[in-house]
Amino acid sequence: MADTKTNPEAVSAKLSLGDQTIELPVMRPTVGPDVLDIRKLYAQGDVFTYDPGFTSTAACESAITYIDGDKGELLYRGYPIEQLADKSTHLETCFLLLYGELPTAAQLADFTERVTKHTMVHEQMHYFFRGFRRDSHPMATMVGVVGAMSAFYHDSTDIADPWQREVAAIRLIAKLPTIAAMAYKYSIGQPFVYPKNSLDYASNFLNMCFAVPAEDYQVNPILAKAMDRIMMLHADHEQNASTSTVRLAGSSGANPFACIAAGIACLWGPAHGGANQACLEMLREIGTVDRIPEYVAKAKDKNSGFRLMGFGHRVYKNFDPRAKVMKESADEVLNLLGVGNNPLLQVAKELERIALEDEYFISKKLYPNVDFYSGIILEAMGFPTSMFTPIFALSRTVGWIAQWKEMIADPTQKIGRPRQLYTGPAARDYVDLRHR
Ligand code: CMC
Prior knowledge:
mainly alpha; binds carboxymethyl coenzyme *A; Citrate_synthase_typ-I; citrate synthase activity; transferase
């Protein structure tokens, strides 16, 4: 990204504040809208800008992921998500996100080997799990266990050491599927299944979730491919709430495991990653196609507090490109499992049709997002709804850690410290208890 200093064509914007004119340099991205550099605004004009929810504020410079919300385009390091979903794998995409380029065959083999050799967790972590209530939500367990990785892997918490940063990244990508599967097994009272390094990344995760020591379990390759796609489609999404949380936590110098635990906590909310669980629960509650109009009417009624889960997005004002790929996968998986006429899928398809023709949804540009179809696939695979968000978390881990590494390596990085529009009382004198 070039700023006014390096780009001869760069322009600046002028801001009039009373009788003062402040010049704001304009930064030019590779693609996307220009960005006003307001860093010196407070020093020059004694004013702040106000933008709750960051709807118009770029909080960092990044070269990892780009979204064009109007076109419905998502690029990882410049590569369209549809091409990656068609031709790549999750681990290759992890390499791309982390290092900026698609790997050569040798680089991919080396990376796969490094990740695969880190899939086991410290044996003592098994006891740590036992401290949780059996009925804990797997996301609650994951926030705790991932945070605890900083206690188990001290030797990769020095953020000033590039090698330790790299080891932490590999450990997180390798161990998150193991931790998510353990959280699941613990919640259903089954023994933990150790990772199997002869399996690929997605198959290993399915095996750790669905195998039991007493029986042989064969991973279905079509389901493994669908799982790999789900992982890849969720791998990164530029400066969303959880990624921004990871960056903000990391900006103070916190260790990577603590930062990723913070990201997982943020992801859990129903407006973000928790929407996949909420969406499937909503489809179940609707139950039959004839009840859809009632729910659409409720979603349009501001006083109901109800939203159609799996619809709408802060950035996409067009179809979420991930949802398109996910819909194809849903058809493939349900047909394979012989449940192509699954009632939930029928409700989902009809809901999508009605919402896309409805004036309310059209005018507000509310399209189905990635969470609309992912839950249907995961349920068909045999996952309970409580595992949907943990699967999002393990898939997004590479994006979080790539963004965290990018931030730490950026010499201009500062602690994140937003300002505020204060509306509380001005200074006043303490009143003694007797006089209140
Ligand atoms: N159903 C009904 N109305 C909606 C919906 C919805 N799902 N989403 C937005 N609206 C309306 C909203 O009421 C508002 O109307 P008005 O302008 O009249 O006040 C307008 O659309 C804009 O909504 P907003 O809340 O200002 O938009 P936002 O950018 O702050 O919120 C969102 C984005 C994703 C939080 C929101 O669309 C939503 O709550 N969707 C449902 C939850 C969901 O599916 N989240 C998953 C997001 S994709 C996965 C991920 O990346 O985490």
